[in-house]
Amino acid sequence: MRNIYKLLICYAICAFVVFVGILIKTIQNQPLFMKSYFDPIVYGHGIKFSENSVYRYRKFHTIEHGMLGTHRMKTTIMSLDEQETLKKSYDVHFWDDDVFSIKLTSKDKDYTAEDEPDYSEAHMLEYPQEQYFQIIFQDREVVCYSSLLTNSVKCIKLFT
C-alpha cells in the first residue's frame, strides 16, 4: 500500500512539473507587447476594394490574458465614418515565438459574412475553423503577421 502512495505522489509531482513547464513556455511565446502590458489594446486600419467601391475600416482588438496559454481577443470593427460597428471574439494561442492561431468563438447576432470587410474572414464567419498566422515582424508596439491560409499580411499597433 505504501508503494502505491509513493507512486501517486511521484505522478502528482511529475504532473505539477509539466504544468509549470507549459506555463513558462506559454509566457515565453507571447509577443513583446503582451509581456509589457496586461490586456493590451491593439489596432489596425484596412481598406477593402471591390469593383464599385472602397471601404475603409479600423479594427480594435483587446487581448485578455489567459492562464493556460489560451487568450481571449475581443474585436471591434468600425467603418471610418463610424456608421457601422461590428463585434466578434476569438480564442488566441501563441504556439511559438513566431506562430499563433485564432478561432472565432462568438459574434454579433446580426453580423453576417456580407458585413465582413475581408473576404477570407467572411468565409471564416460562415465556416469557423482555427486559423494560423506567422509573425514576420514585431517590436514592443507593432506586430506584422501573415496568414498561412491566405498569405495576406496585416500589421497591428499597440494603442497607447
| Total individual domains | 1
Radius of gyration equals: 19 Å
Gap between N and C termini, in Å? 60 Å
Roughly what percent helix?
25-40%
The overall average pLDDT, rounded, is 83
For the sheet with most strands, the description reads: 8 strands, antiparallel, barrel
The outline comes out as elongated
Which structural class do the helices and strands define? alpha+beta
CATH class, anyone? Mainly Beta
Query: So, CATH architecture?
Result: Beta Barrel
Helix count from the secondary structure assignment: 3
CATH-defined fold name: Lipocalin
Give the amount of beta strand, in percent.
35-45%
Low-confidence stretches: none
Q: Output the strand order for the largest sheet.
A: 1-2-3-4-5-6-7-8
Looking at the chains present, what oligomeric state does this protein adopt?
A: single chain
Description:
Keywords: Membrane, Transmembrane, Transmembrane helix. The chain crosses the membrane at residues 7-24. The chain has 160 residues and is of the alpha+beta class. The chain has one domain (31-158): Lipocalin (Beta Barrel). The chain is 25% helix and 43% strand. The protein has 3 helices and 8 strands, in the order ααβββββαβββ. An 8-stranded antiparallel beta barrel has the order 1-2-3-4-5-6-7-8.
Task: Give the SSE layout.
Layout: H1 2-28, H2 32-36, E1 41-49, E2 54-64, E3 70-79, E4 85-94, E5 99-107, H3 119-126, E6 131-138, E7 142-147, E8 153-158
Highlighted features:
160 residues; elongated; Lipocalin; single chain; alpha+beta; 8 strands; 8-stranded antiparallel β-barrel
